[in-house]
TrEMBL record, chain A:
Family affiliation: Belongs to the GcvP family. N-terminal subunit subfamily.
Matches recorded under Gene3D superfamilies: Aspartate Aminotransferase, domain 1, Type I PLP-dependent aspartate aminotransferase-like (Major domain)
Organism expressing this protein natively: Cytobacillus citreus
Alphabetical list of Pfam families matching this protein: GDC-P (PF02347)
Summary of subunit composition and partner proteins: The glycine cleavage system is composed of four proteins: P, T, L and H. In this organism, the P 'protein' is a heterodimer of two subunits.
Keywords, comma-separated and alphabetical: Oxidoreductase
The keyword Magnesium belongs to this UniProt entry's keyword annotation: no
InterPro entries: GcvPA, GDC-P_N, GDC_P, PyrdxlP-dep_Trfase, PyrdxlP-dep_Trfase_major, PyrdxlP-dep_Trfase_small
GO molecular function: glycine dehydrogenase (decarboxylating) activity
Reactions listed under catalytic activity: N(6)-[(R)-lipoyl]-L-lysyl-[glycine-cleavage complex H protein] + glycine + H(+) = N(6)-[(R)-S(8)-aminomethyldihydrolipoyl]-L-lysyl-[glycine-cleavage complex H protein] + CO2
Name used for this protein in its record: Probable glycine dehydrogenase (decarboxylating) subunit 1
Automatic annotation (TrEMBL), chain B:
Record's signal peptide: none
Reaction(s) the record says it catalyses: N(6)-[(R)-lipoyl]-L-lysyl-[glycine-cleavage complex H protein] + glycine + H(+) = N(6)-[(R)-S(8)-aminomethyldihydrolipoyl]-L-lysyl-[glycine-cleavage complex H protein] + CO2
Descriptive protein name: Probable glycine dehydrogenase (decarboxylating) subunit 2
Span of domain Glycine cleavage system P-protein N-terminal: 33-295
Description of how the protein assembles with itself and partners: The glycine cleavage system is composed of four proteins: P, T, L and H. In this organism, the P 'protein' is a heterodimer of two subunits.
Pfam families: GcvP2_C, GDC-P
Molecular function, one GO term: glycine dehydrogenase (decarboxylating) activity
EC number: 1.4.4.2
Record PTM N6-(pyridoxal phosphate)lysine, positions in chain: K273
Cofactor or coenzyme needed: pyridoxal 5'-phosphate
Length: 448, 486
C-alpha cells in the first residue's frame, strides 16, 4: 500500500528482500506459530484522509464546551491561566518534541539545559535545594513523596490532610497499598488541617504528614505550626503546592518542608481534559540520593566546556532494577519545557504579579458573593479559590450556568459528604471584573 | 566560563526587562497584608530570569539547535520506536475543544472528548485482543505498575495471599522489576536459552504456588519472537499465575499476532511508541492497560462506559484498585494516538508492522559480517549486534555510539539488554526510507573498518558535536543540579 508515512517502494522492497534472502515479507513472520497468528486485518475504522479526518475531529472537538469560548470558574487542581503565546512556539520546535530522553548528551544539550533551568526555577519557587526533571502529575508526585518518606524513616504510616486534592489522596492510597503503607486522613477544621486532631494522631511511627498549600479549598495552611508538630516526631513534612501561588506566598522550603511536590500545570500547560500536565518533585539536600526520576547535572567536557548530563542514575530503574527508588521512566519532559518557558516569560516580576492578581481577583469575587447574600463555607485567607454554599445541587446549577456560557465551579459533594451543595469557585488572573460580576449575578438565585 | 558555553537563561537576565503581558488588574484591590497572614507573604522574590520576548525565543531556539530529534535525523534507538511523529496529530491535539477542556466539567459538556477516549479504547481492544482497556496510566512504567496492582487485587480477591512473586526474563526492561517492587512483589528472574528465548525448563523451575505473574515482551528485547508463547502461557496459567504483556514492542506484531490471542491476561501499550505520541524529550507518554474479562472488576476507576448513547465515567467499582492518576490519563497524547490510528486504518497498521520488520531484517543482514550477530534468525522490529569483536581492538560499543554522532545519527540503544556483551540494539522503524537505512549501514561499516585501521578516530569520537564527551563522574561526585547566582 502507499501511505505518506511509509516511504518504501515496491522496488525498494524487492531489493531488500533479496539482501535478506527471502521471497516475501511473510517469511519474516514464519517464527509466529500458526496457532497464535492473527489472520486478516483488524476490525477497526478504515483509514481516513488528512482532510476528512481533520473535518471529523474538528466536529468532535466542537462537541465540547471549552474554556476559551466560555468563562470558567472551575479549578480544583487544574486552572485556566494566562499562557504566554511563545510557549507553544517553543514547544512546536520539533528538535524538542521529537527527541527522547537525553541519553546522548552530546546531541541533547538543548533538552538537558532546558531541564536544568526547570530544576532551578522549581527550587527557587519552592525554596528547596533539589528538584527533579518532572513526574507524571501532582497526584503521583505526592504518592512518590509518601513512598520516599516511608523508605527514609522506615515507618509504615502516613497522615494526609483531608484538605488535600481528593484525587491525589486516592492516588496516594493506591500506591500506598502497593507498598503496604497505611494512610490515615486528618480532618479539617474550617477548611484547614485540624492541628489539634493532628497532635492527637501523630506519633513516632508516622513516616510523613502530607498537607496541601494552598489546600484543596483554597485555604492557606498554617505551615509554621504544622512543621513544629511534624518534626517533633521526626516525621517527614510533605507539602503539595501550586507553584504559581509561591510567587506571592512564603515558600514551603522556608517553613522547613522536607519534600515539596505538585503540578506545574498553571505555568503554560493547557488543561487538556486532565493531562498531560507536569508533576514536580523537590527535596532538601539530605534526600538528594532518594529522589525518584531523572536528574540533570552540570559538568564539563575534556576541553572544560560546560555541559549537562543525566546524573546520579544509580537511583534509577534501568540500573538498579528492583532496588530502584521508583519505577518511573518516561516523565513529562515536554511539559516541563512548557512550564520553563512560561516561568521564564513571567520572570521574577511576572510570577509575583500573576500570583497577586489571583489573590486580588478571587478576593473581589469572594466579597461580591458575600455582599449578594451568599454564605462562604470557610472564612479566612485563601489563594484563588473559595467555597460557596448553594441551595441546589451544584450539578444542576452548573447546567444552568453553561447555558449562559459560564463553566461553574467544582461540586464538592462528589468527594465530601458534608459538603453537598457546596461549590468550589476558582478565580484566576484571566477573569475580568465584568465576568466576575456576571457570574455572581447569574448565581443570584442559588444562595443557601 | 568557556567561550563556547551556551548561556543559561539566568545569565541573560537583566533587571527591568519583562517577557509577559498579564490581563489588566480591573477589580478594586485590597491591601495584600489584609488578605495574607503575617509570615505567609513572600519576602524574597523567586529568582526567575528577567528577559524580553525576543531573547527568550532566541534562547530556546539556540537550545533546540543543540538537540537531535526524529525530525533532525535518523534515531534508531532500540526498544524506543522512534518513528515519525505526524504533524496532523499536533494540530488535532491543539483544537480548543481538546486542549482547553477541564477534566471536572459536567460530563454533558465534554461528550466529544469522552467519545474520542471511548473510540480509542475500542480500537485498542481490537488491536490487542483484550476485553477492556483503561487509558488512565501516564506512561509505560505506570501501566506496568497499574496492571500488577490489578494482578495483586485479583489474587487477593481469590484469597491467594501467598502469590508474592513476579517473574521477569533476564532480558527485561528495568522498569519491569522496578514496577513489581512498587506494586509490592518480589522479582524472580528467568533465564534465556541459547536462542535468546525464555528457557522453558527454567520457567518450569521458577513457577509455583507463589507466582503472581510472568511479565513478558513479545517479541522480546532482543527483537526475537517467543515462539513457545502458548507453552509458556500454559506453564504460568496452570501454576495459577497471570501472564502480562509489556507492549513496548507492539510495533513488531500489529495485525500479525495479538497479545490476547497469545494467552496474555493483561497488556500495557506505549502510545508514545507504536502510536506516534511524540517522545517529547522524555515524555509525556501514555500507557493504557488492557485486560481479559476476569480482571475487569479491578480496573482503576473511573471506567469510561457508554450508556444509552451517552458516555459516562463509572465510579461505582467496588473492586477497583483505586485511582492511579488524577483525572483520566494523558488525554492529549491519547488524542494524538487516536488521530494516528484513524490515519492508518487496518491496512495501514498492518503495513506498519511489515515495513518495521522488513527494515530491521535488511539492516541486520547488511551489518552481520562487520559485527557479531548473537542470534542469527529473522528478527522482528529490532535486532541486537555485539561489539565484542571491536572490543578486542580496543574499541568499545560506547565509542561506536559516539562515532555515529559524527555522521549526524542518534546512536542505537547500547549495553541493553544486559545478557548480550557490548550490545548494540537497533530499531529502524517503518517510517525510514531505504536511502536512510543504507546511509546508516554504510556509516556502521565504515566505523567497523576504522576500528581495525584507525581505532583512535573511534575512541576519541565525537569530533564535530557542540560538546565533547562529558565528565559523568564529576557530575555524580559533585552534583550541581541547579544554577546559583555567583
Amino acid at each position: 500500500m502507499k501511505h505518506r508515512y511509509l516511504p518504501m517502494t515496491e522496488a525498494d522492497k524487492k531489493e531488500m528482500l533479496a539482501t535478506i534472502g527471502v521471497n516475501s515479507i511473510d517469511e519474516l513472520f514464519s517464527d509466529i506459530p500458526e496457532s497464535v497468528r492473527f489472520k486478516g486485518e483488524y476490525n477497526i475504522k478504515p483509514a481516513a484522509t488528512e482532510t476528512a479526518l481533520m473535518k471529523e475531529l474538528t466536529k468532535m472537538a466542537q462537541k465540547n464546551a471549552d474554556l476559551k469560548s466560555n468563562t470558567s470558574f472551575l479549578g480544583a487542581g487544574v486552572y485556566d491561566h494566562y499562557m504566554p503565546v511563545i510557549v507553544d512556539h517553543v514547544l512546536s520546535r520539533s528538535e524538542f518534541y521529537t527527541a527522547y530522553t537525553p541519553y546522548q548528551p552530546e546531541i541533547s544539550q538543548g533538552e538537558l539545559q532546558a531541564i536544568f533551568e526547570f530544576q532551578t526555577m522549581i527550587c527557587e519557587l519552592t525554596g528547596m535545594d533539589v528538584a527533579n526533571s518532572s513526574m507524571y502529575d501532582g497526584g503521583t508526585a505526592l504518592a512518590e513523596a509518601a513512598m520516599l518518606s516511608a523508605g527514609q524513616t522506615r515507618r509504615k504510616k502516613v497522615l494526609i490532610s483531608s484538605a488535600v486534592h481528593p484525587e491525589s489522596k486516592d492516588v496516594v492510597q493506591t500506591y500506598a497499598k502497593g507498598q503496604y503503607i497505611e494512610v490515615i486522613e486528618i480532618p479539617h477544621n474550617d477548611g484547614v488541617t485540624d492541628l489539634e486532631a493532628l497532635k492527637e494522631m501523630i506519633s513516632d511511627d508516622i513516616a510523613a504528614v502530607i498537607v496541601q498549600y494552598p489546600n484543596f479549598f483554597g485555604r492557606i495552611e498554617p505551615l509554621k505550626e504544622l512543621e513544629e508538630i511534624i518534626h517533633a516526631q521526626k516525621s517527614m513534612f510533605v507539602v503539595s503546592s501550586n507553584p504559581l501561588s509561591l510567587g506571592a506566598l512564603t515558600s514551603p522550603g522556608k517553613f522547613g518542608a522536607d519534600i515539596v511536590a505538585g503540578d506545574a500545570q498553571p505555568f503554560g500547560i493547557p488543561t487538556a481534559f486532565g493531562g498531560p500536565h507536569c508533576g514536580y518533585f523537590a527535596v532538601t539536600n539530605k534526600l538528594l540520593r532518594k529522589v525518584p526520576g531523572r536528574l540533570v547535572g552540570q559538568t564539563v567536557d575534556e576541553e572544560g566546556r560546560r555541559g549537562f548530563v543525566l546524573t546520579l542514575q544509580a537511583r534509577e530503574q534501568h540500573i538498579r532494577r528492583d532496588k530502584a527508588t521508583s519505577n518511573i521512566c518516561s516523565n513529562q519532559a515536554l511539559n516541563a519545557l512548557a512550564a520553563s518557558v512560561a516561568m521564564t516569560a513571567l520572570g521574577k516580576k511576572g510570577v509575583k504579579e500573576m500570583a497577586l492578581a489571583n489573590i486580588q481577583k478571587s478576593n473581589y469575587a469572594k466579597k461580591l458573593f458575600k455582599e449578594n447574600g451568599f454564605e462562604l463555607a470557610f472564612e479566612g485567607p485563601s489563594f484563588n479559590e473559595f467555597v460557596v454554599k448553594l441551595n441546589k445541587p451544584v450539578k444542576e446549577v452548573n447546567q444552568k450556568l453553561l447555558e449562559k456560557g459560564i463553566i461553574g465551579g467544582f461540586d464538592l459533594g462528589r468527594d465530601f459528604s458534608d459538603l453537598k451543595n457546596h461549590m468550589l469557585v476558582a478565580v484566576t488572573e484571566l477573569r475580568t471584573k465584568e465576568e466576575i460580576d456576571t457570574f455572581v449575578k447569574e448565581m443570584g438565585e442559588y444562595h443557601a | 566560563m568557556h567561550k563556547d558555553d551556551q548561556a543559561l537563561v539566568f545569565e541573560l537576565s537583566t533587571p527591568g526587562r519583562i517577557g509577559y503581558s498579564l490581563p489588566e488588574m480591573d477589580v478594586p484591590e485590597t491591601d495584600i497584608n489584609e488578605l495574607i497572614p503575617a509570615g505567609y507573604l513572600r519576602e524574597e522574590e523567586a529568582e526567575l530570569p528577567e528577559v524580553a520576548e525576543l531573547d527568550i525565543m532566541r534562547h530556546y531556539t539556540a537550545l533546540s539547535n543543540r538537540n537531535h530529534g526524529v525530525d533532525s535525523g535518523f534515531y534508531p534507538l532500540g526498544s524506543c520506536t522512534m518513528k515519525y511523529n505526524p504533524k496532523i496529530n499536533e494540530n488535532v491535539a491543539r483544537f480548543p475543544g481538546f486542549a482547553h477542556v477541564h477534566p471536572l466539567q459536567d460530563e454533558s459538556s465534554v461528550q466529544g472528548a469522552m467519545e474520542l477516549m471511548y473510540d480509542l479504547q475500542e480500537h485498542l481492544i481490537e488491536i490487542t485482543g483484550m476485553d477492556q482497556v483503561t487509558l488512565q496510566p501516564a506512561a509505560g512504567a505506570h501501566g506496568e505498575w497499574t496492571a500488577l496492582m490489578m494482578v495483586r487485587a485479583f489474587h487477593e480477591a481469590n484469597g491467594e495471599l501467598k502469590r508474592t512473586k513476579v517473574i521477569v526474563p533476564d532480558s527485561a526492561h528495568g522498569t519491569n522489576p522496578a514496577s513489581a517492587t512498587v506494586a509490592g512483589f518480589e522479582t524472580i528472574t528467568v533465564k534465556s536459552d541459547d536462542n535468546g528465548l525464555v528457557d522453558l525448563e527454567d520457567l518450569r523451575r521458577v513457577v509455583g504456588e507463589d507466582t503472581a505473574a510472568l511479565m513478558l515482551t513479545n517479541p522480546n528485547t532482543l527483537g526475537l519472537f517467543e515462539e513457545h508463547i502458548l507453552e509458556m502461557a500454559e506453564i504460568v496459567h496452570s501454576a495459577g499465575g497471570k501472564l502480562y504483556y509489556d507492549g513496548a514492542n507492539l510495533n513488531a506484531v500489529m495485525s500479525k499476532a495479538r497479545p490476547g490471542d497469545m494467552g496474555f491476561d493483561l497488556v500495557h501499550l506505549n502510545l508514545h511508541k507504536t502510536f506516534t505520541g511524540p517522545h517529547g524529550g522524555g515524555g509525556p507518554g501514555s500507557g493504557p492497560v488492557g485486560v481479559k474479562a476476569d480482571l475487569i472488576p479491578f480496573l482503576p476507576k473511573p471506567v469510561l462506559v457508554k450508556k444509552a448513547e451517552k458516555y459516562v465515567f463509572d465510579y461505582d467499582r467496588p473492586q477497583a484498585i483505586g485511582r492511579v492518576k488524577p483525572y483520566y490519563g494523558n488525554f492529549g497524547i491519547n488524542v494524538r494516538a487516536y488521530t494516528y490510528i484513524r490515519t492508518m486504518g487496518p491496512d495501514g497498521l498492518k503495513a506498519v508492522t511489515e515495513y518495521a520488520v522488513l527494515n530491521a531484517n535488511y539492516m541486520m543482514r547488511r551489518l552481520q559480517d562487520a559485527y557479531d550477530l548473537p542470534f542469527d534468525r529473522h528478527c522482528k522490529h529490532e535486532f541486537v549486534l555485539s561489539g565484542k569483536r571491536q572490543k578486542k581492538l580496543g574499541v568499545r560499543t560506547l565509542d561506536i555510539a559516539k562515532r555515529l554522532l559524527d555522521f549526524g545519527y542518534h546512536p542505537p540503544t547500547t549495553y541493553f539488554p544486559l545478557n548480550v556483551e557490548e550490545c548494540i540494539m537497533i530499531e529502524p522503524t517503518e517510517t525510514e526510507s531505504k536511502e536512510t537505512l543504507d546511509a546508516f549501514c554504510d556509516a556502521m561499516l565504515q566505523i567497523a573498518k576504522e576500528a581495525e585501521e584507525n581505532p583512535e578516530i573511534v575512541q576519541e569520537a565525537p569530533h564535530n558535536t557542540v560538546i565533547g564527551r562529558l565528565d559523568e563522574t564529576l557530575a555524580a561526585r559533585k552534583p550541581v543540579l541547579r544554577y546559583q547566582k555567583q
